[in-house]
């Protein structure tokens, strides 16, 4: 069963003085492109977190974040009064130079409170019990993302199976036109020769005709395309981590369909080839999301 690279996982853990929310988002990417946003309190655990993500997620553009909401009276954030006073003094000096009113309202105070280093956080060591709770939240968020990937993968597999089945059906529709187009090509060449009213060696003509018709034969392309379709379905059943391989198979399918179109020399066959290309294009578009 294939899996999608797209996924989302979110878990909130409650501690005595804070709520810790772990959030993971994943999109498609050729490699594992990992971006982390970790509060300073858990920075020392960053390598451990990244290692866990690298081992589990394999591929995709992954955004990982931990958010902390402090609750109760034991929140460690405090206002840096010296920084606030310094900012006010600088703003007053600047207002005098510019000839505008100095900060004097709560709105201006709120502006100052958003400036750098106004809110300071006392360094706090993470005890083992707290880290175990956070680590469990991380593992649960990863599992939620993996479950999401499995669900998306099942939908993709259903889509691919339908598209491959459609191409196989269109491939069968080619057969009735094969003999017809050969007769038409042969008849068109004979008509042109009669119009020219010239003598020609009929034996040589037959030899050249056989050579020409062999060049238009599409049996090899049909057989190879049929094999690629079966191989695509078999590969999907071998498990996840087959995204790149499925992409390569889809490319080979495209080559055979293109060759079939260039050799068809028949309007109805070319219409079938166009429909095959449309089905294959939808496969190629979605196979980029496969893990």
UniProtKB/TrEMBL annotation:
Regions crossing the membrane: none
Domain Endoribonuclease YicC-like C-terminal: 176-290
Top-level enzyme category: hydrolase
Record key words, sorted: Endonuclease, Hydrolase, Nuclease
Sample GO molecular function, one term: hydrolase activity
Keyword Nuclease in annotation: yes
Pfam families registered for this protein in UniProt: YicC-like_C, YicC-like_N
Family: Belongs to the YicC/YloC family.
Entry protein name: YicC/YloC family endoribonuclease
Native organism: Parabacteroides absconsus
């Amino acid at each position: 069963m294939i899996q999608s690279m797209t996924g989302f996982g979110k878990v909130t853990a409650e501690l005595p003085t804070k709520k810790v929310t772990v959030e993971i988002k994943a999109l498609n990417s050729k490699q594992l492109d990992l971006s982390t946003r970790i509060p300073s309190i858990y920075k020392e655990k960053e390598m451990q977190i990244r290692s866990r993500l690298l081992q589990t997620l394999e591929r995709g553009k992954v955004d990982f974040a931990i958010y902390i909401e402090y609750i109760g009276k034991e929140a460690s954030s405090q206002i840096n009064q010296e920084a606030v006073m310094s900012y006010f003094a600088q703003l007053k000096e600047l207002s005098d130079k510019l000839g505008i009113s100095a900060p004097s309202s709560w709105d201006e105070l709120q502006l100052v409170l958003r400036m750098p280093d106004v809110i300071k956080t006392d360094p706090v060591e993470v005890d083992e019990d707290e880290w175990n709770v956070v680590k469990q939240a991380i593992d649960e968020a990863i599992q939620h993302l993996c479950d999401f990937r499995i669900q998306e993968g099942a939908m993709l597999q259903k889509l691919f199976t339908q598209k491959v089945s459609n191409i196989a059906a269109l491939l069968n529709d080619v057969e009735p036109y094969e003999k017809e187009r050969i007769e038409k090509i042969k008849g068109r060449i004979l008509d042109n020769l009669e119009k020219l009213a010239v003598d020609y060696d009929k034996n040589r003509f037959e030899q050249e005709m056989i050579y020409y018709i062999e060049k238009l034969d599409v049996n090899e392309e049909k057989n190879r395309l049929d094999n690629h379709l079966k191989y695509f379905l078999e590969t999907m059943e071998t498990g996840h981590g087959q995204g790149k391989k499925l992409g390569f198979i889809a490319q080979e399918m495209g080559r055979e369909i293109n060759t079939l179109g260039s050799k068809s020399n028949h309007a109805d066959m070319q219409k079938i080839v166009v429909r095959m290309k449309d089905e294959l294009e939808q496969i190629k578009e979605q196979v980029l999301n496969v893990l």
